[in-house]
């Protein structure tokens, strides 16, 4: 038996406990909500529950919509145009988010005349309100997603002129550490239910509305990204539609050039670690002797190791 095989046996034999993850906490305006823990008894939350913390694989997978087997949520919260929102992603065991490479995108969809608690999101027409990629001018080329690995929620502003109504907010991480090959990208969508008040008039145009799945393809330049590990980092092309024009027209845009209204927050859980290693692209907590530990000690190589492992084992390792 080759040494590498010995090393990998526990990696394959022990089921996942905490790798990957879900939206554990959401802030909307002044309200805070816990997410719904996958497979636990559903709570009264605004966050639609998924049944599996694993990534959605494949751009046309029906679960790209709102996550794995997403269920209706029983609550909806009131919000106002211009409100701050924040989305904290964690591992399945509430450890910090394990991935750090790839964009975070935010979409909304009208729930029509419903209050979203009965709205079938597979019929939704989505528009994009924000997207963030790499942190501007970060000397290490870190992505905003990396902030989640330190327990910092992604902060998104509700468009300041948005028309009143009930909406789904779809916050999505696309993890790209395996995206050098087709089908490698990992989609992590999460949908929450909000009712926007006020007297705004902002709305997307018909051309800005997309279906999910539908808006993405496995060969989109932002989803199949052969140069994702290159240095210096090449420009990144976000997948999906552009940010709806009314969003930029109605709010003061930050200077990131990504058209994003997202800024990081410091809404960290008390257990936030400090000094999170860079390049921690797949934290496999349960197996301290697996390559993940070695990779954390040698962060620059982490993602390649994970990718190679996944390829060696037909992609099932991740
Ligand atoms: C629903 O959310 C609101 C906050 O928007 C909260 O006040 C209310 O208690 C929640 N309802 C339930 C049943 O949890
Ligand atoms: C990034 O660097 C460029 C060139 O030095 C500068 O013009 C720009 O303002 C910087 N952006 C941020 C967000 O710091
Ligand atoms: C989001 O960031 C803004 C400043 O950029 C801050 O005022 C706000 O409190 C943050 N929201 C949350 C929920 O942390
Ligand atoms: Cu993973």
Q: What brief labels describe this structure?
A:
binds copper (II) ion; disordered N terminus; monooxygenase activity; EC 1.14.99.56; Coagulation Factor XIII, Chain A, domain 1; binds 2-acetamido-2-deoxy-beta-D-glucopyranose; 318 residues; six-stranded mixed beta sheet; disordered C terminus; alpha+beta; 11 strands
Explain what this protein looks like in three dimensions.
- There is one protein chain.
- With about 325 residues, the chain is α+β, with helices and mostly antiparallel strands.
- It has one domain: Coagulation Factor XIII, Chain A, domain 1 (Distorted Sandwich), CATH 2.70.50.70.
- The chain is built from 5 helices and 11 strands.
- About 45% of the residues are buried.
- Residues about 1-15 and about 250-318 have low confidence and may be disordered.
- It binds 2-acetamido-2-deoxy-beta-D-glucopyranose (3 copies) and copper (II) ion.
- One 2-acetamido-2-deoxy-beta-D-glucopyranose binds near residues 136 and 137.
* Ends distance: 23 Å
Tell me the number of strands: 11
SSE series: HEEEEEEEHEEEHEHH
Would you identify the CATH architecture?
Answer: Distorted Sandwich
Shape, principal axes of CA atoms = globular
Q: How many structural domains can be distinguished in the coordinates? A: 1
Helicity level, as a percent range? 10-25%
What molecules are bound to this protein?
Answer: 2-acetamido-2-deoxy-beta-D-glucopyranose, copper (II) ion
Summed up, the helix count is 5
Given as residue ranges, the uncertain stretches (5+ residues, pLDDT < 50) are 1-17, 251-318
Q: If you compute it from the alpha carbons, what radius of gyration comes out, rounded to the nearest whole angstrom?
A: 19 Å
Largest sheet: 6 strands, mixed
Strand content: 15-25%
CATH class: Mainly Beta
Class computed from helices, strands and strand pairing: alpha+beta
- Return the CATH topology: Coagulation Factor XIII, Chain A, domain 1
